[in-house]
Amino acid sequence: MENLFTDRLWNKVEPIWKSYLEHPFVKGLGEGWLDQEKFKHWMKQDYIYLIEYSRLFALGSAKATDLDTMTTFANLLHGTLDMEMDLHRKYASKFGISNEELENTEAAATTTAYTSYMLNVSQRGGIENVVASVLACAWSYNYIGKSLAKVPGALEHEFYGNWVQMYSSDEFTALANDCIDLINTIAKGKPEHELAFIEEIVVKTSYFEYMFWDMAENKEMWPVEVRASV
Ligand SMILES: Cc1ncc(CN)c(N)n1
């Protein structure tokens, strides 16, 4: 059987991604006891994260050298702006937050660091850097969504059920699989030093994913003491 590059990546990220499932924010989401104020913080930060993340798909489309890849990136862009972010807009309306307010959320330190890293690495390199930057994001949320869908009652939970349904859905799985297929195609025939760099991006973004869960759990913005003195 063919050796896929994502099998190699999986060996690297599996322990990091398993730790997401043990994280109190993710556990609370799946078991339904997560504090809604923490979820609100995640939702607002994630909305502006997804705006920057969408830029990466637009960049991928611009860097693509064939129409199939261009179309895949365009679909990923549309899927994020339309399907994924609609989940956030619906949750925001439950909290009485307008779309405009949501869009004007101030980015927390972790959100700024994560999106800046992805945009920097993607602008510097070729299309492989763009795909490597978005891979952990799409794939790990689908991994979490599918894992939480197995928790009894998670899919039916009256507040968090929609989250679990969307991230475990066939539509979101198709978006994650598009990213997986893209990286496997792009990795074919690349020299080891380039593969190692792609791997490094996927590992770093996986650490950023953990930091994002932590940021939501602790409702973090920027260091308070320093901020007060500015
Ligand atoms: C931080 C983060 N990472 C990944 C995803 C899934 N697109 C997300 N919504 N937010």
State the major sheet: none
Can you count the beta strands? 0
Q: Helical residue percent?
A: over 70%
User: In the CATH hierarchy, what is the class?
Assistant: Mainly Alpha
Second CATH tier, the architecture: Up-down Bundle
Regarding quaternary structure, what we see is single chain
pLDDT average, as an integer? Answer: 96
What binds here, in terms of ligands, is: 5-(aminomethyl)-2-methylpyrimidin-4-amine
Structure description:
- Pathway: Cofactor biosynthesis; thiamine diphosphate biosynthesis.
- Its EC number is 3.5.99.2.
- Homotetramer.
- GO terms for molecular function: thiaminase activity.
- This is Aminopyrimidine aminohydrolase.
- This protein has 230 residues and is mainly α.
- The chain has a single domain, classed as Heme oxygenase-like (Heme Oxygenase, Chain A, Up-down Bundle).
- Helices cover 80% and strands 0% of the residues.
- It contains eleven helices and no strands.
- Helix 3 runs antiparallel to helix 10.
- The radius of gyration is 17 Å and the shape is globular.
- It starts with a helix and ends with a helix.
- The structure holds 5-(aminomethyl)-2-methylpyrimidin-4-amine.
- The site of 5-(aminomethyl)-2-methylpyrimidin-4-amine has 9 residues, from helix 3, helix 7 and helix 10.
